[in-house]
Amino acid sequence: MENIELINKYIEILLSSDIHCFILKGPPGIGKTTAVLNKLGDVGLIEDTNFYYINGHITPLKLYEFLSSTRILEDPKVVLLDDVDSIIKNKTSMGILKGALSEARGKRIVSYESSSTKVESRSFEFTGKVIIIVNSIYRNEALESLLDRGIFYDMEVSPKELAEYINKNIETFGGELLTTDEKTTVWDKVKRFVETPGFSLRTLNRAFMFYHHDKDLWYSMFTKTIKKKK
For residue 214, what are the domain limits? Predict the structure, then answer.
């Protein structure tokens, strides 16, 4: 998919320039996370050595602690925040990110004022990069500030593009539950549903799971889970 090539280019620019943030938006299940993690691996970055991967809900305090802990990472000190729509909604979290990505006198200072004894340091200098993956965008003043300071890409994938992507990479989906031949057999049966509402890589993986569980009834089980076109 052209989308994957663009994501790769944006990450290369992020890592080699004075841009500090990349925000990737797109519907769930189209391979956003896989594309980013694959690219980070391709350029030699190792999780917990060069980057942290954080998935799901995260409180402002935990976000502050993660950003602070990047000081022990090796360059380029990347924080990958995946499926963290809650951060976009939270003013405190957005304020923390703004501090991490906004330079003042040549430094990016992150502060957290709290009476909590869990906060060891009230401020620190952040020198890393941030990649944010979200399903949707909630517009607010703090977010507009981040969008102006980084790269924002809205990943839109047509059914045709998704089908072509699956055709070329079928062996990489669904883990090791099935052989490549079995995955191809399943995909040949379910590709007709690629234009139905909500079809994604997660839909395909669900079909793989059904096939693994029952090779006789899997297709019937699968079709009953597909959303019907209106």
Answer: 159-223
